[in-house]
Amino acid sequence: MGHEVNQRIVGATPAGAPDRESAAAAVREMFTSIAPRYDLLNHVLSFNIDRLWWRRSARTFDAILKRPAARVLDLCCGTGDMAFALRRRAGSEAWQILGADFSHAMLLRAAAKAAEKTPDKGRSARLGWIEADALRLPFPDGHFDLVTSAFGFRNLADYDAGLREIARVLAPGGECGILDFGEPRGLIGQCYRVYFKKVLPAVGTMISGVRGPYAYLPASVERFPAPDEMLGRMRQAGFREASWTPYTFGIAGLYRGVKSV
Ligand SMILES: C[S@@+](CC[C@H](N)C(=O)[O-])C[C@H]1O[C@@H](n2cnc3c(N)ncnc32)[C@H](O)[C@@H]1O
After folding, report:
1. Is 41 touching ligand 1 by the criterion CB < 6 Å?
2. How far, in Å, is the centroid of ligand 1 from the Cα of 77?
3. Which of 27, 34, 86, 256 is the most buried (most CB within 10 A)?
4. If DSSP codes are grouped into helix, strand and coil, which group holds residue 71?
5. Model-level pTM?
6. For position 120, what pLDDT does the model report?
7. 155: Cβ below 6 Å to ligand 1?
8. From CA 185, how far away is CA 122, in angstroms rounded?
9. Secondary structure in 3-state letters for 225-249
10. Probe residue for ligand 1, chosen from 44, 87, 101 as the CB with the greatest number of ligand atoms within 8 Å
């Protein structure tokens, strides 16, 4: 694609946070503040399409998930829905699916939801939760066969550092899948932007009772690199076969890459 990759640090900057550390702290506080209502808001504001996106992304990685002893990490797992979708696709031999997030409140909800679900005993992969920062993962090099992240990667304070960290913990030939929002074009894009920038922040603020996070959401999507640029950054971080598949007119999309051997 020959797209030039901008070399300056690019990442989330909630409310103009001046550096990486304060950006990360602001993101963590923001998600912690909306954790109690996060699922309800997700489903209402996306008209439940989020469920289809998680399932479709998980299905993409069937070949890895059905492998005996596959090691899977879902980064920025929040309340766990992407991890649950991965487990549904995983073979019984999958060793373990780990969800990692730096918001304790989000992880507590993920664990509570996991306890409510009753997977076929002994016939489905085990789930585990770990409190960790995506930019400093507590795992050795080459540990995982698959790393996913749904609607979380966009919130990292440094996207290149995030991609390098994902590449580090992946085994050579391992895959990464980053599901996140995009900006649809054309007439659909125009209508969607009205919804995303006006209706969604208003409804989100009303239901969550917290001002801020739902204004940050459209702003963070606007700042996120366009697909060509993101693919360039993935290649630079050591991923080959980098690709982007738009979902629902490009409202969301899945970035995929294979860690170079
Ligand atoms: C929009 S939520 C997505 C949650 C879930 N993956 C989903 O699809 O619903 C983003 C999550 O990313 C987490 N997050 C953001 N930056 C992070 C970081 N640097 N390290 C770990 N988790 C992070 C937040 O705490 C939050 O739970």
Report:
1. no
2. 6
3. 86
4. strand
5. 0.92
6. 56
7. yes
8. 46
9. CCHHHHHHHHHHCCEEEEEEEEEHH
10. 101
Residue nearest to ligand 1 atom 4, measured at CA: 78
Q: Does ligand 1 have an atom closer than 6 angstroms to the CB of 170?
A: no
Cβ of 103 below 6 Å from ligand 1: yes
Q: How confident is the model at residue 261 (pLDDT cuts 50, 70, 90)?
A: confident
Ligand 1 center–CA 187 separation, angstroms: 30
Burial 97-131 (b: 16+ CB within 10 A, else e): bbbbbbbebbbebbeebbeeeeeeeeebbebebee
252-259 sheet: strands from edge to edge: 126-131, 96-101, 71-75, 144-150, 170-181, 252-259, 239-247
Stronger pLDDT, 82 or 210, i.e. the higher one: 82
Distance spanning both ends of the chain, measured CA to CA: 22
Task: Characterize the bridge pairing of strands 239-247 and 71-75.
Answer: unpaired
pLDDT of res. 1: 42
Residue 1: CB atoms within 10 A of its CB come to 9
Q: Is the CB of 45 under 6 A from ligand 1?
A: no
4-14 tens-digit pLDDT: 455 566 888 77
What is the pLDDT, as a whole number, of residue 7? 52
Q: What percent of the chain has pLDDT over 70?
A: 92
The first and second tokens of residue 103, run together, are 């918001």
- Residue 2: predicted pLDDT: 43
- How much distance in Å is there from the Cα of 32 to the middle of ligand 1? 10
- Ligand 1 atom nearest the C-alpha of 32 is 25
CA of 2 to the centre of ligand 1 (A): 31
